[in-house]
Amino acid sequence: MKINKINIKIACFFVAISAISFISCADDLAELNENPNAIADLPLGLQLTDIQLKAAGAQYEMRRVGLGWASSSVQQLADVNIATNLLPGDKYIDFIDYSYAVFDEYWVNEAKDVIDFVTRSAEDPTAVNYNAIGRIMKVISFHKVTDLYGDIPYSEAGQGYLTNTWFPAYDRQQDIYASMLNELETAAMQLTASAESPGSQDVIYNGDLTKWKKLSYSLMLRLGLRMSKADPSSSETWVKKAIAGGVMTQLDDLAKIEHEEGGVESPIGYSFVVDKFMRLSDTFVGWMQENDDPRLELLSWVESGAPHQGLPNGLDPSTLITDGPAGGDLLDYSQVNQDLVQRDSPSMYITYAEVELMLAEAALRGWYTGDAEVHYNKGVHAAMANWSFYGVDAPTTAEVDAYLAANPFDEANGMEMIGEQYWAATFLNPLEAYSNWRRVEYPVLTPVNYPGNATGGTIARRMKYPLVEFTINAENVNAAIANQGPNTYTTRVWWDKQ
């Protein structure tokens, strides 16, 4: 969006001073904004593959927002840096160029393509299933952006590339949620075995429409619960509709993208390959140690061979020496098991484990007749088994059974237990871990108060809009701020009620 506007100004300048044509600058720029390398009438199957791979994001936004802000804010990761290669969420440092990375990258690399795909597939009566899948992909892409920033361009998003609408209005988050839920419902109803399936060009489910329908309703369950504090009545309605429609029922129903080294690489894996400073948070490691969690041996790797030891959040190189529980050598602190963060490690959108834990919450709320404990136990089993998709040996069924026997579900503390397990189940799916934590605030985390932090010593509730928006789209971004609140880390998005 901003790149093309800069190009417009430059092009208009040179057209004006050259005075070699009477053709208007606007007409010239219409041609300049056409990609000469674009393929006319790109086959829908190829475009589907493209938007699915792009939805996983790139190392740029994953390192800056996913790991940099989200994972460290919810104290899954920690670091000691205060200048470069840092995790801003560890100390709530205002690295604004980190904060806006998802917003900035999304409009350039995702929005225009997924919207174009949905539009083109809707015009083709034989592409019913392509259109349904496109609608689901649109929700996957947009909900991560609105959950981070709140009000965002939605109804006019991506239109700069498609209709020359360069200054998109910001939609209210509650309106975006209503639209996304309707998109999911429409998609689920559209999917049909009587129309063409994308087959192998669908790199998530290989054309399995039954799994796409489960994904649609599982995302509906996620978004429905996300509204539980902001709009309990609508939340309950959509949760019930999702469960009735049919959510994920087994481990391999999960939605993920496989990566390959030298091809479309894992944004998380690549981030860990190039950044050796990140450590597991002492909060996360301590929680696993306290509960004798079999995931500890799987997730934690200490390079020096010392015992598992998480790094406390909020330390810098000086305080690491004085206050670090394992001293001042980072090699004595737990890193993420390197086998889990390779360039070919998968990207997870939503897993069966998350769905079972959400069903447990729905049952606990009285919105579902299922047994909360049964779904909780299934969720924990699935969360541990899910690590097998990373090519490692997951905890055995016997180990998980022993863990659950030692830490049985307690309905009186059910919301806290479900929240903690969801937090663990979404490790390496940082944006979801961050969003769900803001909604339920479990596990209970102790914020840090590093000198000069940008939040007053509280965990950030959202990311900040890019500064460039206040230059090129000032009227619309200021309208969003008037509706939502100041462009700060402590302003809560619509669904994030106290």
From TrEMBL:
Source species of the chain: Arenibacter certesii
Residues making up the signal peptide according to the UniProt record: 1-26
Stored Pfam families: SusD-like_2
Protein name (record): SusD/RagB family nutrient-binding outer membrane lipoprotein
UniProt-listed InterPro entries: SusD-like_2, TPR-like_helical_dom_sf
Keywords: Signal
